[in-house]
Amino acid sequence: MIRQEELDLSSLEPVHPAETAVAGKSVLLAEDDPALRRYxxxxxxxxxxxxxxxxDGLEAMKSLLTNSVDVVVTDAIMPNLSGYELCRxxxxxxxxxxxxxxxxxxxxxxxxxxxxxxVNAYLSKPVSPEKLLDCLTExxxxxx
Length: 144
What we know:
alpha/beta; Rossmann fold
């Protein structure tokens, strides 16, 4: 859960300038905690990303079918369709399987390993804005 003081975004400076490789990139952000989803959405937008936000895995799956995105950032444990199931859906889809996936979870990595599917990055919650943005930058640099 995100603390109230972490929601103060007024002092948040862009960590990565939008004129970098970020420009024009879109992120599907699937997170069921509304405060954390909004916080990460603002962090990503301030870094120059276009964000498609989803409140659960099912909403995220529907968004993937109707929106063009460059990367998926998903919580592991969500209602209706978990992040693990969302990852399996993406990897099993002919049109989406190329998308990089970042899995966010509060679970211990060893505990979650049995559920891991083919993801490009695994970040433990709470994730810092810098760590998330660095991970995205690295994924996009690897793609080129």
